[in-house]
Amino acid sequence: MLIINNLAVSINGKNILKGINLEVKPGQIHAIMGPNGSGKSTLAAVIAGRDFAEVTEGTVTYFGKNLLEMSAEDRSKEGIFLGFQYPIEIPGVSMVNFMKTAVNEHRKHKGLEPLSASDFLKLMREKKELVEIDSKLANRSVNEGFSGGEKKKNEIFQMAMLEPTLAILDETDSGLDIDALRIVANGVNKLKRTDNATIVITHYQRMLDYIIPDVVHVLYDGRIVKTAGKELALELEEKGYEWIKNEIEKVN
Amino acid sequence: MIGRNELTDIYSSLYRENIEKIRESSSGYINSFREEAIEKFIELGIPDRKNETYKYTGLENFFKHGYNSYFLPVESDFVKAEEFRCDIASLDAHGIVLLNGFYPTINGKLRQLPCGAWIGSLNEASKKFRDEIEKHYGKYAVSKSDGLIHLNTAMASDGVFIYVPGNVTLKKPVQVVNLVYSKEDIFNQHRNLIIIEKNSDVSLIICDHTLSPQKFLTNAVTEVYVGENSHFDIIRVQNEHNNAGKLTHTFIHQEKNSYASSNNITLHGGLIRNSTYHYLGGEGAESYSYGLYLADKWQHVDNFVNIEHAFPHCTSNQLFKGVLDDIATGAFNGRIYVAPDAKGTLAYQKNNNILLTDTAKMDTKPQLEIYADDVKCSHGATVGQLDKNALFYLQSRGINKYEAMLMLMFAFADEVIRNIKVKPLRDRINSLVIQRLKGELSRCANCLVKCV
Q: Does residue B52 lie in a domain region?
């Protein structure tokens, strides 16, 4: 589905990603862990199509297409979804209008007619239940005045509405209490199918108690320095990132 | 280049050439202001950039243009006004059409509404409502620095008159459609007087339209008296062509515990200058002053707001927002004056602007003069681009960049639009603003007269 080959990225001349290799297959859940400043969010943003970084080397292909040549909106319509670490507040744009526009853009891309108002509201209701989001939130402006937990639930709600093929959840667990974390994780699990995939970017193991990854990568200083099964997350939790740093220094 | 004095000369001779005709059709009381006003005008002249409140707006180009006539109507002119129908079918309003600032003669010139209020021609009303006119006319539109107000007092002879007695709530808004139509380039002026006695409630909608492509310049003065405990909303929608200049001066005098809001929605026009004066003349008065301006090409929109807190415990709020494209320019100047006795004043001001190009330009200037203690005042101004993070957020959900930009611009504008309480008008303005932001002509689709 997604093949990243030797991807190098710089921001304002500073090298952030230094040769990333990663392959995600349908049905898989990948976790990317790593200390602050290792480049996790940059990787997520580059896949989603944010144009703040310069790709200096490497390729990213998605179902055989060159992803780096596509606009952010086309990537979304092709099935890529980014759950933001810091969801943006957009005063004046209602959630309903925002989602209706997005869903209908996706439908147009698939050659489908726009949803009728009643079908759309039905869809909203259904998906709201999935993430136990307060009905009132949907009547407000996008993320405006939402609590940290509500913003994250809202990301999963949008994911549920758009049914992506590849979802990248960037620190979706940060700022969540344990109940909200369970709700968010349940939502992700319910959306899981054999033909879609998820990349969970996280600091901590606790999210991975609920969303069980097939593969865990450790990103450190712009490189994936370790890849293993779900047990790697537990090991990291126990030994801390110092362990990885020491190991790397040993190798060097 | 025509110098300042020469410009003033042109208009003072226009006065001399027309004053006899103007006097003939006006009442004695209104005429009694003219001589002094023209002297004041000659003293102050057409405001130039040395005038602090016109620093960012050059009027010379519009004033030096040789207008073929100073319009005085004949009956046939009013056929056009009679034909005009506002196409907002769901807008149930008491309608008035002004043609080049004059009240059509074909209709009854003054009519009484079932609730007891009167609407009609100022000229006509000056005969019937002598006491009220003498009490209020010329009392609020005073200026020590703006010659244009005096030019209007000297020459204007008609406009809208609204009289609402005490304890009356007008369920339907009053809608005034200002049409400018002529086969010649014309300069015109009108004068509105709105008197709302105690405990009453009125909404007034003013729509500015041009019906022919000639060069026009309008200089309009509106005086409003809002009595104790009364509620007044004025919404002005400006949709004129790029060759038209529109200068409006609105003076709202508020008594104790009254509420007044003004909202200037500028969709189109060559040169627009709106001066809005709120005088908080009694304890507990509240004023809200809103404005939205969308300008492109070489358009220029200037909003000047003057809030005077003369009594304690009054509240004022200003919110002006603009989107400027191409080489459009804009100006905002908001003055808050708090008199020495006006303790417990709350006064807020906000001006936010989005520039879509590097060549669009906005000048914004707060002016706070506070002479009282125990006062809360705040002001803030921003000039910037669309929020890139918000744009990416929308795009990342599959919304294309153009659509995402429209959504953000519309959301930006909505903060002003949502204050319009008359729902059919708010809906129409929503759709006009969307059309405008898309770069389409923002005229009302089914309007019988195509105005832009």
A: yes
> A102 and B397 in contact by Cβ < 8 A?
yes
Residues of B in contact with A87 (CB under 8 A): 393
ipTM attached to this prediction: 0.96
| pTM of the predicted model as reported, rounded to 2 decimal places | 0.88
pLDDT tens, residue by residue, B58-71: 998 899 988 876 66
A2-251: which CATH number, 3.90.920.10, 3.40.50.300, 3.40.50.620, 3.10.50.40?
Answer: 3.40.50.300
Whether pLDDT at A74 is above 50: yes
- Closest residue of chain A to B406, computed from CA coordinates: A93
Q: Is the pLDDT of residue B333 over 50?
A: yes
Q: What are the structural domain ranges in chain A?
A: 2-251
Q: Do B395 and A109 touch (CB under 8 A)?
A: no
Q: How many domains does chain B have?
A: 1
Mutate to test the interface with B, among A71, A73, A86 (most CBs of B within 10 A): A73
Do residues B273 and B148 touch, judged by C-beta distance below 8 A? Answer: no
In the predicted structure, residue B450 carries a pLDDT above the cut 80: no
Q: CA separation (Å) from B298 to A47, B55, B326?
A: 41, 18, 7
Residue B57: inside a domain: yes
What is the DSSP secondary structure assignment for residue B438, as one 8-state letter? T
- pLDDT at residue number B446: 43
* Residue B422 maps to a domain: no
Q: Which domain holds residue B92?
A: 4-381
Neighbours of B430 (CB within 10 A): 16
Please answer yes or no on whether B407 and A101 come within 8 Å at the CB atom. Answer: yes
Say how many C-beta atoms besides its own lie within 10 A of residue B62's C-beta: 22
Residue B237 DSSP class: E
**Whole-number Å distance between alpha carbons of A206 and A173:** 8
Query: Does some domain include residue B426?
Result: no
Tell me what the pLDDT averaged over chain A comes to: 92
